[in-house]
Structure formats: C-alpha cells, structure tokens
Amino acid sequence: MDNNWLELTDKVVAITGAVGGMGTKFCEEFAKQGAKIALIDMIDDKTEEQAKKLSIKYGVETLAVKCNTTSESEVDAAVKKVIKKFNKIDILVNTAAILRFSPFEDLRLDEWQAAINVNLTGYFLMSQRFGRIMIEQKHGTMVHISTIAALYPETYSGAYSTTKAAINMMSKQMAAEWGQYGIRSNCVLPCLVKTPLSKNFYSDPEVEKGRERLVASRRIGTLDDIANTVLFMASDRSSYTNGGEVTVDGGLNTMISDMIPKPGGRRQYAINHH
C-alpha cells in the first residue's frame, strides 16, 4: 500500500489532550504521516517536550499550546496561536476527557460539573472556535473521541456516559449545520482498549480473560486500533462520512445476546436442539 495513502502530509492537525495516553499516540501517528501538529494540553513542560521530540524525530512542524479547554479565553488564545503559526486548520481531534467513578446517588455536583466542563464544554469550545475558521476556509474535519459508554451506560462512572452521549449528538448537529461549508464531524467510539487510563483494569489476568470473552474478536484493543481509525476518519479517504459514529470495540456491541446464558451454553444448546 502507498505510504501516503491517507494523504495527510502537510495537513494542519490540532489535538487536545495531546500528552495524555491517546493524545500522545495520535500526535505520533499524524507526525509519521507528515502532518503539522498543534499539541494542545494543560501540562506545559510535557507538551513542549513532546512537540520538540516529534519535530526532531519526524521532521515535521509542531506547536505546543498550553490551554485549559474549559476556559473560553484560553481556547480563543490557543486557536489564534495555531492560526498564526500555520495560517489554517485542516483537522481537529478532540481527545481531552476525565472519568470520575461514583454511584449516581453519591455523585457530587462539583464532580458532575467537572465532567461536563471537560468532556463536553471543552469539546464544544474547541469545535466552535476552530469551526468558525473552517467555515471561512470552506473545509475542515473534526474527529471526537467518544466511547461505547455513550450508547450503553457505564454504571458507577458518574457523568461519564452522559457527557459522551452528548458529544455524539453535538457532533451530529455540527455535521448537519456545517456540512454545507465542507466540514465533517464524526465520533470514534472505543471500548475495551488498553490505555493508560484503563491499564489498572488489566492488572489481573483473570479480569483480562473475562473481558476478552465478551469481545467478538476475542482480544483487547490497543492504542494502534484507535489511532488507525482516527487517522482514517481525519483523512479525505472517509470524505463521505459525516455525522457518523465509528465503533472500535472488537465487536463488543454485537455480543449482547451472546451474554445471555442458555442451558449447557449457547452453542451446545443450538447443537442439541438442531
């Protein structure tokens, strides 16, 4: 396959949560493709370090931007820095998110609001501000990291599922309103993927085996699985996909019926009653 099949060379990509587990991976994979990358994160020193590393390793232009995506003024300043440096924006990848575990009856208002601020408002502000520029340009692509938990509630995870479900709808609304300007907005919905955020779930081998049994592909996903999908959705190779939700879960969402027990096991039951 042509190494430039995705045609991302010299595309300007802004990635939020750029030094988080997923964000770091996305930045590297876009850099491998020759894209110009704006790394947006709250962690100043680490963002600068990662930007320099990518620039040296892959010979691409990078920009480190310290920004709290929940702050309107900081988002405005960040967008101005990106446009001043690169003169355009081709792709926005919204990655920054938080997860706070809590039974719903014990969820504090400040925890609820923190999740909404980071997971939803941050996505909104970044999308709106970069979206205005994309409207002027008459082109642009947005990829928002959501989750299967937006469709099936992640119990005892506070406001996480609620905020991610809202992201899915926000993405559809932006696609519906901005598609006429050449802008695409899509969500990527991972689940059962090993990330720095989920690594504790897999410290027990039995837990990992139990999770694998729930997945049609019988394996746990990797950051590569997510990154490959994000790059494809960001590229013009997916140019007729707009307002979509792409699941990256190994077929977990297809396995609900398979989880319902039958006497002797579902396969054996079918054999016995054939």
UniProtKB/TrEMBL annotation:
Entry keyword Oxidoreductase: yes
Alphabetical list of Gene3D superfamilies matching this protein: NAD(P)-binding Rossmann-like Domain
GO MF annotation list: oxidoreductase activity, acting on the CH-OH group of donors, NAD or NADP as acceptor
Gene Ontology biological process terms, A to Z: bile acid metabolic process; fatty acid elongation
Domain of life: Bacteria
Alphabetical keyword list: Oxidoreductase
Pfam families from the UniProt entry: adh_short_C2 (PF13561)
Tagged with keyword Oxidoreductase: yes
Assigned protein family: Belongs to the short-chain dehydrogenases/reductases (SDR) family.
PANTHER family, alphabetized: OXIDOREDUCTASE, SHORT-CHAIN DEHYDROGENASES/REDUCTASES FAMILY MEMBER
Protein name (database record): SDR family oxidoreductase
Organism of this sequence: Pediococcus pentosaceus
